[in-house]
Amino acid sequence: MGKIWSLLFLLVLIGGVGCFLVAPSYNLTLPQDVSSHGHAIDHLYVFILVLTGVVFVATQAVFFWFLWKYDAANNREPVKYTHGSHTLEIVWTIIPAATLLFIALYQMNAWASSKMRMPNILPTVEVSARQFEWRLRYPGPDQILGTRDDLFHVNDLHIPVNEEILIDLKSQDVLHSFFLPNLRVKQDAVPGMKIPVWFKATETGSYDIVCAELCGWGHYKMKGRLVVQSRQDYDRWLQEMYKAQAQTASPPASEEDN
Amino acid sequence: MSVEAPHSSHDAGHLKLEYETGLPLTNGKLIMWLFLSTEIMFFAGLIGTYIVLRFGAMVWPTPHDVHLSEPIGAINTFVLICSSVTIVLGFEAAKSNRAGLAKIWIALTLLLGSLFLGIKMYEYQQKFSHGIYPGTPHSQIYEKPDLYYAQAVRERLAKPDVQKQVRELQAAAAFVSFKAAPTAAIPATDEPATTNLTNILSWLGSVTDTVPEENKAAATQLATAKPAELTPWFVDHMDVNAT
Amino acid sequence: MSSVTVGSHGHGDSKSGHGKHDHGHSAAHGHADAHGHGHAAGFISTYVFSKDHKVIGIQFLFSTLIWFLVGGLLALAVRWQLAWPWSNVPLLEHLYTAEGGQMAPETYTMLFTMHATVMIFLVIIPILAGAFGNYLIPLMIGADDMAFPTLNMLSYWFMWPAFFFFGGSFFTAGHGASSGWTSYPTLSSSPAAAPGSGTAQTMWLMGLTFVGVSSMMGSVNYMTTIIQMRAPGMSMFRMPLTIWSMFITAVLQAFALPVLTAAGFMQLMDRLWGTGFFTPEGSIINNTMHTAGGGQTLLWQHLFWFYSHPAVYIMILPAMGMVSDIIAVFARKPIFGYKPMVYSIAGIAGLGFIVWGHHMFVSGMNPMLGMTFMVSTMMIALPSAIKVFNWIGTLWGGHIQFATPMLFALSFVSMFIIGGLSGIFMAATPVDIFIHDTYFIVAHFHYVLFSGTAMGVFGAIYFWYPKMFGRMMNEGLGKIHFATTFILLNLVFFPMHVLGAVGFPRRLADPYHYDTFRFLKPLNQFMTICALLLVTVQVVFIFNFFYSMFFGKTAGRNPWRSNTLEWQTPSPPGHGNFDFQPVVYRGPYEYGSPEVSTDFYPQTQEPPPGVSNPPAHGH
Ligand code: HEA
Ligand code: HEA
Ligand code: CUA
Ligand SMILES: [Cu+2]
Predict the structure, then answer these.
(1) Which of C193, C314, C460, C581 has CA atoms 20 to 30 A from the CA of C420?
(2) Does ipTM top 0.90?
(3) What pLDDT does residue A241 have?
(4) Is C184's CB within 8 Å of A213's CB?
(5) Strands across the sheet with A164-171, in order?
(6) Strand order of the sheet with strand A176-180?
(7) Model confidence over A110-156: pLDDT tens digits?
(8) What number is the average pLDDT over the span B133-147?
(9) Which residue puts its alpha carbon closest to atom 1 of ligand 3?
């Protein structure tokens, strides 16, 4: 019976490794990455996956082996009466410590480039989250946010490809989180704070904007669309938006301003 | 908190066990000290919050703003501390069997306690008379934020005549003349009407600060109005207590 | 079934029986007789408002098990929606609001909030500290009860207002709090923000406060008892690891929980009295303007996680301790590296206070601070590593008996490795940018909480059941329960890792309308089916639990031939626990000692003549 139980635990090892090996062929892996910084994150993910994979395989294998070998039903040797070993304790403290310290140092650069090295450019767009939509505000022709020629839009974020984008992220009511799975971007939008988010998209196309922080009953449907366009397409889109808005907005106001 | 002697009456029947004690304290003292040290963390939370908020705030009310008299507060603190001293002295006196002295200290403690409460009463009276209460009135468009309500609104707004009211509301928005009137921010009416209504209302609220000075009052009023003040456009159609 | 060892072992019993006679005073026997009459006190004071730690422990056990069932059913409703979104929920149709029998989106948010709330605050924390802490501490250190029995009783009865508030909140608008078990403002602090943020949230906070008061009462009592009431010879380093872990858990509770209580009060004030601790000025939440302002939303997160990170260790350390004891008993071997085990428990607890920021990497907190928290989080894996290696070391060269408690304990180790390793991904800040708030996190904490702690708790129930009720649980049923639970839980929770890798977000009532996640539905349906089965097979356990109470094989004093003190008392122990004065001569894990011919060597057994092993007094 002991053997069967040991094999059950071996199943964890086989199933676990198997699951991660098979998953990519069903697309069950990191989604397509279209950002310039994403590969650093993906690399780190794979690196930790391999490293923890090794630890996982090693510990589970030894675990299984001991269960198999020292099953009371067949182990005829006397019990090894021992209270531990200083050497071993030191070994298995130092090795994980060194490994962990290495991971800690190894990742710092990726973190800094995602969250600490803010590019020195004007914000491309202000994203202001509210229950349950993404309010967008483009600076308009004068390139400055918060002036009267700003463009307003909802849920449909257009950006130019291959350019550094800086977003001012805000929230009007509760917490939200601005999540672009394909760009490896996630940042909570916090009421009362303006948080910079930056990235560079490397491929045109249309991608999901997901709200990743619980924000109420409509959290699940707080969906936006990120459209990455070539510079020309993007400019054209801006022009159209601007015209459309100029028509509907009260004309005297905008004229006064320009 | 119950500070009972260990093994009080309840277990008179059974074998009395011997123990190895870790600290030369009675159990009562030990548990009380442990309890007090948990209180340190409680106040660490509160005081930490105060520090964070105080240093994170752009402005902080002056004592004058909140009708706080610092000298009175300081005196009251002193009174409180003195009362702790007198009660301990009373306890010491009682322990050394000097009943008279103990009575004096206890009476003094009582006196200081009443003085403390008196001063506190005065301070609160000052606040109340300036209208400072816990629970400032919120300006709420409706008060019962629950699903039933939203459901009711949704149903009502689905009706054609109410659709008309919504457009009237939009017109009202134009009336307060938002210069940057971002119609794009008000999605067209293909979305279910609840979103629309809430959008409009909260959008009104969120742009009040960009409204030109002369219209600010009107905009603020509209944005923060209670249902009753929003007549006639939609209150008739919106049963605030609908559940 | 394995050839070994369950059932009462005549010789194990008589052996410890001898131990008892060796230093039992005649008074003890006199007492045992008088005992029956002592119970005239009446049903109410014996079984309801009892001050006996054993009764209180069992009260905690029953209450938490019932809530466990509730939490499990809530999880099923969650799973149902994830597999077949917006379809009618069978059986529960009438309980849900909204159109037909289909679940409203706010109901979904309520379901996972209350699922987590129930599981964490009403199941895992009270079952570990309340049920097993209460039952085992006095027995394992050789005390007749807790230092303060009345306070102990109150700590149980303070759970009832919490039961009432959490339970009652299901019947308020929104059917329960629905801002996540983390209750982040301003969603939670503004009654207008969500249907469940009204009365339900207030009740949630009240419930939390009572749980807090109850824990605080328990923890100071446990600390006092462990410090002051150990049997002669039971020095700190002769205490079983269960007691060490309970002790350190009590320290964690005592010093982390008050911060949450303070934060809870502030959120209550924000809600009820219009203060603005957590609300910045100018927020307009669902059309409600908040006049008070000046608060900071992130402040709550700091205060919450300052408690709740240590709390995740509160939710696992006692299980680690109990698992260590179980493994040593069934490997028939001393625990490998007893002192490193103790130090690593302390290390986890100490480091546990300085890692809370790892829940807030993408919250908008200063990224520099994020980096510091990342380093401390990496380091906290170290003491856990030491524990894992020592458990494996304990198995090495043992005589492993695959009894039900052992199987659950082994699965704890195996599953904790998985749950712990996924923690490393999340501790890596750049990776966490992607996997934060995805199912990767959900996989992580179910592996540590369900596959880890809950499995450890099952093991502990099977292990100490004979002591609690005087009868053995059925082994065959126990093994069926183990095998099915073990396989199914892996089928439910392991796929969550790969879901997380795709970026599948948690807390979404219907994630499939995103293009990125649409194709994940079949996998979710598979997981849901497994979850349904997982809850169903618990029937085996429930049956076994109640059946054995009346018809199980009677257990002697020491059915597992164990060394620790509780097994030297009668099963179940009478009022006052010990019918002899326990004197401790050695550590708790002397299995296979060459000093004696049996393979176990109770802590109270006097050493044979000629062996110098004097009782260690006065530590
Ligand atoms: C019992 C509960 C428990 C335990 C023990 C842990 C243990 C750990 N947790 Fe977990 N955690 C939770 C419960 C728990 N957690 C919960 C409930 C949440 C989510 C809350 C919410 O948002 O709702 C969470 C969330 C959470 C996050 C936030 C994720 C996010 O929201 O983005 C992080 C990030 O760092 C984290 C990290 C860790 C780490 C590093 C450990 C470590 O202690 C693990 C250490 C163990 C090992 C590493 C395995 C054994 C070691 C070896 C085999 C040795 C060799 C290993 C190496 C060299 C790598 N946890
Ligand atoms: C200890 C904690 C614990 C436990 C045990 C569980 C158990 C389970 N959990 Fe849960 N879960 C959480 C803690 C826990 N969970 C937390 C903290 C969250 C996060 C919530 C948030 O985002 O705010 C969460 C969220 C969560 C989600 C994510 C929801 C979302 O984000 O959208 C899901 C989805 O699948 C889920 C599923 C399950 C399932 C299928 C189980 C199953 O394993 C359940 C199985 C149940 C049983 C096996 C019950 C058995 C009962 C008995 C044995 C009692 C016997 C009784 C007597 C003898 C009287 N849980
Ligand atoms: Cu916005 Cu979730
Ligand atoms: Cu944590």
Answers:
(1) C460
(2) no
(3) 87
(4) yes
(5) A151-154, A133-138, A125-130, A164-171, A195-200
(6) A156-160, A224-229, A205-211, A176-180, A185-189
(7) 999 999 888 888 889 999 998 889 999 888 777 777 666 788 889 99
(8) 38
(9) A176
